[in-house]
């Protein structure tokens, strides 16, 4: 057995891979990655793959980025970790202050964890505990949108509406309520995306009118519901949801784990609606894709509801690695790149080129429906896709030096922000070629 074949066999025996039916690997081999270089992953046989999904949406500025790497090396020699109960350190303070400033101090208090699902759990717990501290313990239910995804721990599954992730565990979950998604694809002839948003907001209004007394919070993925298939919608929905949450005294949680950090075209997606939520969740891109880190940003009002002599009125969530200095340092280096390279402005040009390239490559393909884009996210649906399309496309793309993993019949890209013109062309052209091959 070659060294690689042996590594693959050992991985299948000893490593339980995520989001995977392990038996499928009898047909579809694992890919042993040796190293990364910018937007490319390089395997142990020297084959290269353009990372068209930023390694599950986390990597913003390429692999082995020297600026983030050097910041981490310096932090490693100074302080790798210290517990955050009773102690503090410069990276966590500086990161909290910089994020607060990015929200114009609307969200001036940062709570830390390590993964996105935990950020969801923390926001739900904080919201319900806020109402309890305000003498309304009955406000402890949650509302999410149809097709929502907020993570897969048992608490987060309560607000995740993706059948494949939820059905097997449904008996463990205290499910929340679902209201209609403002999915712009639901526009009737003559209707705009904003009309669909107003229709969905009317349904939210009706739900809250009846259930506000039991409802702690509405949780949404602003502008794009990513995991259920890159569902895009008009910012009007966020404006109306903010108004309705204010009117019915319900918190608004903006899960920007996927769409935050410039992905949507602004640093926070909520900025495009001109609103701030009561809780804003970050993870994935915030550390540049280097280390696990998640952050719940919240308001003075929420913070004040917990500030008391009584420990039991304080927020109770203990996580060993809260505010890990290395992860915070990676996030600070990531924010430095945003500032120094004016990434939001530069991404506008990159996103325009990405859109043009895909329009040219697949825009007139007879199977392509709803080609759509929001900042550095681009997707289309494939009509008449054969069963097993997603896995077939994945393999066909890999054979063309491209990493893309469709969600069902939706092909999408969420690339690192550093793509060159040649890389954009490769991404679009090889997507078209892989599409043709997987339909044949
Ligand atoms: C990925 C994701 C999560 C969960 O984050 P994990 O780190 O995978 O637990 C939650 N919400 C959204 C919108 C996500 O895209």
From TrEMBL:
According to its UniProt record, which cofactors does this protein need?
Answer: pyridoxal 5'-phosphate
The UniProt record lists the keyword Heme: no
Q: Where in the sequence is N6-(pyridoxal phosphate)lysine found? A: 284
Marked site, Participates in the substrate recognition with KAPA and in a stacking interaction with the adenine ring of SAM, at 19
The record ties this protein, via InterPro entries, to: Aminotrans_3, Aminotrans_3_PPA_site, BioA, PyrdxlP-dep_Trfase, PyrdxlP-dep_Trfase_major, PyrdxlP-dep_Trfase_small
Q: Which PANTHER family match?
A: ADENOSYLMETHIONINE-8-AMINO-7-OXONONANOATE AMINOTRANSFERASE
UniProt family annotation: Belongs to the class-III pyridoxal-phosphate-dependent aminotransferase family. BioA subfamily.
**Record function comment:** Catalyzes the transfer of the alpha-amino group from S-adenosyl-L-methionine (SAM) to 7-keto-8-aminopelargonic acid (KAPA) to form 7,8-diaminopelargonic acid (DAPA). It is the only aminotransferase known to utilize SAM as an amino donor.
Protein name in the entry = Adenosylmethionine-8-amino-7-oxononanoate aminotransferase
Species for this entry: Zoogloea ramigera
The organism that produces this protein has a lineage beginning with: Bacteria, Pseudomonadati, Pseudomonadota, Betaproteobacteria, Rhodocyclales
């Amino acid at each position: 057995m070659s060294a690689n074949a042996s590594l693959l066999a050992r991985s299948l025996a000893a490593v339980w891979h995520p989001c995977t039916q392990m038996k499928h690997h009898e047909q579809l081999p694992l890919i042993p990655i040796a190293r990364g270089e910018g937007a490319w992953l390089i395997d142990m046989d020297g084959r290269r793959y353009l990372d068209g999904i930023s390694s599950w949406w986390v990597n913003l500025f390429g692999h082995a980025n020297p600026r983030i790497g050097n910041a981490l090396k310096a932090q490693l020699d100074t302080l790798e970790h210290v517990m955050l109960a009773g102690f503090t350190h410069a990276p966590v303070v500086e990161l909290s202050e910089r994020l607060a400033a990015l929200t114009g101090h609307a969200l001036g208090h940062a709570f830390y964890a390590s993964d996105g699902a935990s950020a969801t759990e923390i926001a739900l717990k904080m919201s319900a505990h806020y109402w309890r501290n305000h003498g309304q313990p009955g406000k402890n239910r949650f509302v999410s949108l149809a097709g929502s995804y907020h993570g897969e721990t048992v608490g987060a599954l309560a607000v995740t509406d993706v059948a494949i992730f939820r059905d097997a565990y449904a008996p463990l979950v205290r499910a929340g309520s679902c209201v209609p998604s403002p999915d712009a694809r639901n526009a009737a002839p003559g209707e705009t995306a904003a009309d669909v948003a107003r229709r969905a907001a009317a349904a939210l209004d009706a739900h809250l009118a009846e259930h506000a007394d039991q409802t702690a919070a509405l949780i949404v993925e602003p502008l794009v519901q990513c995991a259920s298939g890159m569902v895009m919608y008009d910012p009007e929905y966020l404006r109306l949801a903010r108004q309705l949450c204010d009117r019915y005294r319900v918190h608004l949680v903006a899960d920007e784990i996927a769409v935050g950090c410039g992905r949507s075209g602004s640093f926070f997606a909520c900025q495009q609606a001109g609103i701030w939520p009561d809780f804003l969740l970050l993870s994935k891109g915030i550390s540049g894709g280097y280390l696990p880190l998640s952050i719940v940003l919240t308001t003075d009002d929420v913070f004040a509801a917990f500030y008391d002599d009584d420990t039991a009125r304080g927020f109770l969530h203990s996580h060993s690695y809260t505010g890990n200095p290395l992860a915070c340092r990676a996030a600070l280096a990531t924010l430095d790149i945003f500032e120094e390279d004016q990434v939001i402005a530069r991404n506008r040009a990159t996103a325009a080129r990405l859109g043009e390239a895909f329009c040219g490559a697949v825009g007139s393909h007879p199977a392509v429906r709803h080609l759509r884009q929001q900042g550095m996210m681009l997707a289309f649906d494939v009509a008449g896709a054969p069963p097993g399309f997603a896995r077939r496309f994945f393999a066909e793309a890999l054979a063309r030096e491209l990493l893309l993993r469709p969600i069902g019949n939706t092909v999408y890209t969420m690339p690192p922000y550093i793509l060159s013109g040649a890389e954009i062309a490769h991404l679009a052209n090889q997507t078209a070629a892989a599409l043709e091959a997987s339909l044949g």
